[in-house]
Specification:
By secondary structure, the chain is an alpha+beta fold. Helices cover about 45% and strands about 20% of the residues. The termini are far apart.
Length: about 425
């Protein structure tokens, strides 16, 4: 066992490679527990796109000793919360329970993880559920446009493919494909048990040894390669929309690149909140949009910066032009001293306040351990933000805000030219 004393975090690696990380917070009465796997949609072959997300669904559908109803009711009857999510690089099964229910919570999660029956009839029902989920996204342009953006931006790269898959690939998933995928990628060295709350690390380790300690196997090494930005523009017309929803952006930085901290500050000033330049100029000053802002995504080998907006077809081009004008303004003039200072303060506040909840702590520890094989202390993260200079912002802005680099995707009823 190792202890990261800077944040009172304990880390233990079982002989088979499963890692257990926890923080004891004695003043709360709850525990957030997550069973994480370092696999996601980027690890899927083209023929089984969406299988990571589909497995997440199926693990709730019954085990050798519990029905789907019993899985849910056992946690909910104790006042707890049971959930899961699939990302492009990780999958998580999580609970939030009273501290007295740690053993029960661990038993439920590992039972789902290891003993799900994947009943063929249940699979066919759940395929229909996921296909309805796909259709729901297709009917929600303000959601779909983000997936479209990554698809156009990264073209054939695995990170450009939607997490949920397609109706064709989901329909074709077999029980054998699920078992093979889990045998290949749900392996000990990719598993992290993460917890934060009123618990003892030694108890969590004992429970992990009991339920996961006999797992074997090693996943193939993940192939990482930077995704090149396409710089292409694509518009998808949809008849019955009152707005045009658009994404505009390009490549950012991966989790190992220090420039991502400067980009985070730039994003904060440009469109990261209600006091940002784009929100104030486009919504508050001109009333051209209800939703306008920006965000970043950071992955193991790449990332992106994106502005999203929704506006009427008649004002779409004006909003786009104002966005590009602000890009050029930042490239030429940079940020003011007040903007840089305020952004650092805002980010510090958001990071610290975000760790008030046990779930946020649990998630940060697992994500950091999977990405960096250590938990980066908050003090180290804040120091990196504090060290960002105007020159750092300028270098990032010249790359990320260059007009030649931008990829544009939009969904809506475009005005006739």
């Amino acid at each position: 066992m190792t202890k990261q004393t800077s944040e009172n975090i304990d880390i233990t690696t079982l002989p088979n490679g499963v890692r257990i990380i926890s923080e004891t917070v004695p003043h709360v009465q709850s525990i957030s527990l997550g069973l994480w796997v370092g696999t996601g949609s980027r690890d899927e072959a083209p023929a089984i796109r969406g299988i990571s997300h589909f497995i997440e669904h199926m693990l709730f559908k019954g085990t050798q000793k519990r029905t789907a109803w019993e899985i849910a009711d056992t946690i909910e009857a104790r006042g707890g919360h049971l959930n899961a999510f699939t990302g492009k690089e990780t999958t998580c099964y999580e609970t939030r329970v009273l501290s007295e229910d740690l053993e029960l919570s661990m038993d439920i999660l590992t039972d789902m993880f290891r003993n799900s029956v994947h009943d063929p009839e249940e699979m066919e029902r759940e395929k229909r559920v996921v296909i309805e989920e796909i259709k729901m996204y297709e009917d929600t342009p303000e959601e779909q446009v983000h997936d479209l953006f990554e698809q156009v931006l990264w073209n054939t790269h695995p990170l450009g493919k939607p997490i949920i898959g397609t109706e064709k690939t989901v329909s074709a998933i077999t029980r054998e494909a699920i078992l093979d995928y889990m045998k290949t990628l749900y392996t000990p060295e990719r598993i992290v048990v993460s917890a934060a709350g009123n618990l003892e690390h030694s108890q969590l380790v004992r429970l992990a040894e009991k339920t996961l300690g006999d797992m074997t196997g090693t996943a193939p090494k993940r192939i990482l390669k930077p995704a090149k930005a396409s710089g292409k523009s694509k518009k998808l017309s949809k008849r019955d929309t009152e707005q045009v929803h658009f994404c505009l952006g390009t490549n950012g930085y991966n989790k190992q690149e220090n420039e991502r901290f400067a980009l985070s500050i730039l994003n904060n000033v440009l469109g990261g909140n209600m006091s940002s330049r784009l929100f104030q100029e486009i919504r508050e000053k001109r009333g051209l949009a209800y939703s306008i802002g920006s965000y970043t995504r950071v992955y193991l080998d790449t990332g992106h910066f994106c502005v999203y907006g929704g506006t009427s077809p008649q004002t779409y081009q004006q909003v786009l032009d104002l966005t590009l004008a602000e890009f050029e303004n930042v490239r030429k003039n940079g940020l003011t001293e007040d903007e840089l200072s305020k952004a650092k303060t805002q980010i510090r506040g958001a990071l610290v306040l975000g760790l008030e909840g046990m779930n946020s702590r649990m998630s940060r520890y697992a994500d950091s351990l999977l990405a960096f094989n250590r938990v980066i202390p908050i003090s180290e993260v804040l120091e990196r933000y504090n060290s960002i200079s105007h020159d750092d912002i300028g270098n990032v802005a010249n790359k990320v805000l260059s007009p030649e680099a931008q990829t544009l995707t939009a969904i809506g009823a475009f005005p006739r030219s």
